[in-house]
Amino acid sequence: MDSTQVKNTNPPKHFWLGSLLIVGLLCACVSQIMIINVNNVLFQGSSNSMFLLSSSLMMLLSLLPFKITDQYQLKFALIICFIVAVFLGYQYTFDIPTSNSAMLLPIWSQLFFLSRPVAVGFGIAACVGYLLQSRNKDYHLDNHCHMLSLLAGTAFLVGEVAGNFWAFLGWGKSWGWTGHFYVSALTYLLLVLVFHLPKAWFNSASRLALGKAVLLGFICLLILGYKFS
Amino acid sequence: MKTNWLYSMRLAFVLIASVSLWFGVGVLLNNYQVSRNAFSALNELPMAQWGDTLINTPIVGLWLLVLFGLMAMLAVNTVLCIWRDLMPVWRQKRWRSPRIVMMPIHVLTLLVFLFHGVDLVFIHGHDKVMLHEGESFQSGQYKITLTRINYRDDVAYITANADGKSKLKRITHRDLKEFDPRHNDIELSVTVNDKTYHGNAKFMAPFNVDNLYVMVTDFSVGFGEESKGVKAQIIAVHNPIVNYFYICYVALILTLLFQIYFFWHRNRKKGTR
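Structure tokens for the assembled complex are given below, as produced in the milestone run.
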């Protein structure tokens, strides 16, 4: 049994403050998603606001199954909350989307649009966790980050398959030689690369964690840059 | 001579990173009009007919050659990795090992690659026509007749001006008030081997007979052709592998979800990976 499991008898200092912050931000995200969609005929899955809100929601949800047992893990949760707060703040700079585009009708297109922010949300959470581990190894957090990376990759793949099916139903081609396809393939392969970092090239677990953090950070910046450029 | 490096994680890392980088080069190439036109041409043709396009734009040809080379090496590395590293876990029946799901994930990924390859070599390409009611065309052994167009939105929006353009944007960017795919459809009849099939197709809801998929991708009224009424843009695609392709993708997603559950369950019980 590792040391982190032994010391989980008392919640860490400021634990309740952290929990309150998570619940508060979760409520803010859900209410803003409802405000955006309640007056729209179609779910605004492709908008910038929904991208930021969905990413924030996933970052917060990634904290829910995670047991905070020490100050170090609380730090992880607070950094995630800070990033969510920044995303929420940025989201308010956009007008409330009101698109009635025919593109938003099929569930496949909605799945495609939502998969990117979901992957970014899990990816950022995993990146922060790995960054913290590059300074202090925590097995509980390491496992959690591994699962979040897997979730990010799977979410991205689900979106790719949904988009692929959407394209086939609409235009008879599941993919094509286009810039969008290259960026998608590039991003998915980078997500696959997270699980293929050779341990032999890193002389310690903390260096490996740092390598994964850098890669995940780059992937998230790539997706965000492509969306908001 | 030692051949461990052929199925090593290090080679896999180098190859995946190289393919990613090469796709990045593809994004840069796509910024140039000449390359973009060449890529658009490749989208419309099966691989056997790529020759002229690639001779006229050698940079695109070189990019594709390197991409296929890297993909082939990655496929070999994956096959060897499955054979040497992942299959023993199954042979030794280590059902509780975290590596147990790795083999199906890698096999399914290879199959998806394979289907992409088959699609590229044999299937890419389609028949695209604009038809008025009553007109027909031949696609392979299938005779497709457009029997009726049920267009219920305002035709003024889709009527072309002298420049051949209508007031509407691309079909995916149209407002539902201008164009609602749910209540505009076409009625078709498809004849093959003396058998005739009747059905409807809407935008995003193709009509399917055997391996033939008939899609309607746009409605319009030509300039000065108001008397002829609305015409529909129709695409006919012959794709016998599409179902297997998606079965592989869904199976891959399910194995990944199982892997996530496996780790989650194990972590809860043991606290470590």
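Chain A has one domain: 10-228. The mean pLDDT of chain A is 90. Further analysis is deferred to the final report.
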